[in-house]
Amino acid sequence: MGYKTMKTLVIDTTINAHTESFSAQLLQQIKQQFAESTTYLPLNDMDLPTLDEATLTVIYKQKAGEALSVAEQAIADTRQAMLQQFKAHQKIVIIYPMYNYNIPARLKNYMDMVLVPRETFQYSEAGKIKPLLTDNRAVLFLQISGSMFSLDKECQQMEFAYRYLDMMFAKMGFKKRTLIRAEGTAICDKEAILQATLEDFNQWQVN
């Protein structure tokens, strides 16, 4: 199966308080590029469990084969649904703003639900990581930032968002991993950034 025909999951972590905002305009344009069969996942509109005491209790109980309470079962069901949906899509598009050099909290919560040992990766007896999603998968990281982080060496060193995501998807086995930066939205011409980002996105779609 080629990348262009893969089933696509679009994970959106932007906060679009105003329809005129850059992220809202970008998202609107990108959504028009996908087929109706594309799955759209707006994380900020969802009640996702965090990796807290309640969730860890669910994980430990499941490993021990213990019965779950109603609230615990709801957490388990949500985590399982998110994991299975993720695994069912071979092409992932993540649209996210970079906050303080890192990914949004909602996206971190989501990553904690799909980075599951023996589901998306596993460790060997020697402690080495073995990817489990090795069926020619692709991911696009579309990173939005107010400043120009790619031009400054110090900022590049602190750009943890993309590096974290790239390493985690490599860990799971994604072969094609691409970064598109929509940067400088607070200091540069937004329309020019929007058009450049869409051109990069369309080129990624073709390839």
Q: Quick summary of this structure?
A:
This protein has 207 residues and is an alpha/beta fold. The chain is built from 7 helices and 7 strands, in the order βαβααβαβββααβα. Helix 1 (22-31) packs parallel to helix 7.
Instruction: Please tell me the overall pLDDT.
Output: 90
Largest sheet strand order: 2-1-3-6-7
At the fourth level of CATH, the homologous superfamily is Flavodoxin domain
Largest beta-sheet characterization: 5 strands, parallel
Structural class of the helices, strands and pairings? alpha/beta
β-sheet strand percentage = 15-25%
Apparent shape: globular
| C-alpha-based Rg, rounded | 18 Å
**Can you identify the CATH class?**
Alpha Beta
Give the strand tally: 7
Overall CATH architecture: 3-Layer(aba) Sandwich
- CATH topology type: Rossmann fold
Q: Identify low-pLDDT runs.
A: none
**Which range best describes the helical content: under 10%, 10-25%, 25-40%, 40-55%, 55-70% or over 70%?**
40-55%
Count of discrete alpha- or pi-helical segments spanning 4 or more residues? 7
Description:
This protein has a single domain, classed as Rossmann fold (3-Layer(aba) Sandwich), CATH 3.40.50. Helix content is 41%, strand content 18%. It has seven helices and seven strands. The strands form two sheets. The protein has a five-stranded parallel β-sheet with strand order 2-1-3-6-7, sandwiched between helices. A two-stranded antiparallel sheet has the order 4-5. The chain is globular, with a radius of gyration of 18 Å. The relative contact order is 0.16.
